[in-house]
Amino acid sequence: MFKKITLALLFSISIFAQKQARIVEDFNKNWNFKLGDFPEAVTANFNVSDWRTLQLPHDWSIEGTFDKDAKTKQAQGFLPAGKGWYRKVFTVPANWKNKTVSIEFDGVFKNSEVFINGKSLGMRPNGYISFGYDLTQYLNFGKENTIAVKVDNDAQPNSRWYTGSGIYRNVRLVASEKLHVGKWGTFVTTPEVSTEKSKVHLEVTIDNDNASAKEFKLVTSIVNADNKEVANFTSTEKIGAKTSEKKVHNLEVKNPKLWNTENPYLYKVITKVYEKSKLVDNYETPLGFRYFNFDSEKGFSLNGVPTKIYGVCLHHDNGALGAVENIHAVRRKLTLMKEMGANAIRMSHNPHSLEMMQLCDEMGFIVQDEAFDVWKKKKVTNDYHKDWDAWHKQDLEDFIKRDRNHPSVMMWSIGNEIREQFDSTGIAITRELAKIVKSLDTTRPVTSALTENVIEKNFIYQSGALDLLGFNYKHEDYKDFPAKFKGQKILASESVSALETRGHYDQSDVIKAWPTKHGAPFDGNADWTVSAYDQVKSYWGATHEENWKTIKSQDFMAGTFIWTGFDYIGEPDPYPFPARSSYFGIVDLAGLPKDVYYMYQSEWSNKMVLHILPHWNWKKDQEINVWAYYNNADEVEIFLNGKSLGKKSKQNDDLHISWKVKFEPGTLKAISRKNGKVVLEKEIQTAGEASKVDLKADKTTIKNDTYDLVYVTVSMLDKDGNLVPSAMDLINFEVTGGGKLVGVDNGYQANLESFKTNSCKLFNGKCVVIIQSNGKKENIQLKATAGNGIPVSSIQIKVE
Question: What are the residue boundaries of the DUF4982 domain, all occurrences included (predicted)?
Answer without folding.
Answer: 622-679
